[in-house]
């Protein structure tokens, strides 16, 4: 798994590219604070090599809790900026700092 950040000079946003190697998976989405935890708005596209990838523009100078939803199972990003305990989920969520 990986996260790539590209800060734009012309807009106060950061393009965040999420990459998830999941050859056996049928569906992968990134869900979090930025999309009300909805997998419908953030499905990642499966590439020929079996990796899922997608880019989302997020406002800079914020932090966001998120997880990957891989075939219905929540998975944290190993390369997250940090982790945050979430009482509602009863587990830690990955956090990205922009």
Written description of the protein model:
The chain has one domain (2-97): Sandwich (Immunoglobulin-like). The protein is built from no helices and 9 strands. The chain has strands spanning 2-7, 13-21, 28-32, 45-46, 51-59, 63-70, 73-75, 82-86, 91-97. Strands 3, 6, 7, 8 and 9 form a 5-stranded antiparallel β-sheet that branches. The chain has a 4-stranded antiparallel β-sheet with strand order 1-2-5-4, with no helix packed on it.
Give a brief outline of the structure.
With 98 residues, the chain is mainly beta.
- Give a quick account of the main beta sheet: strands, pairing sense, barrel closure: 5 strands, antiparallel
Characterize the overall form.
globular
Strand content: over 45%
Task: Report the CATH C-level class.
Answer: Mainly Beta
Helicity, as a percent range: under 10%
What oligomeric state is this? single chain
CATH architecture: Sandwich
How many structural units, i.e. domains? 1
Q: Given the helix and strand composition, which structural class is it?
A: mainly beta
The overall average pLDDT, rounded, is 95
Radius of gyration: 13 Å
Q: What's the helix-strand series?
A: EEEEEEEEE
Low-pLDDT ranges: none
Measured between the Cα atoms of the first and last residue, the distance is 18 Å
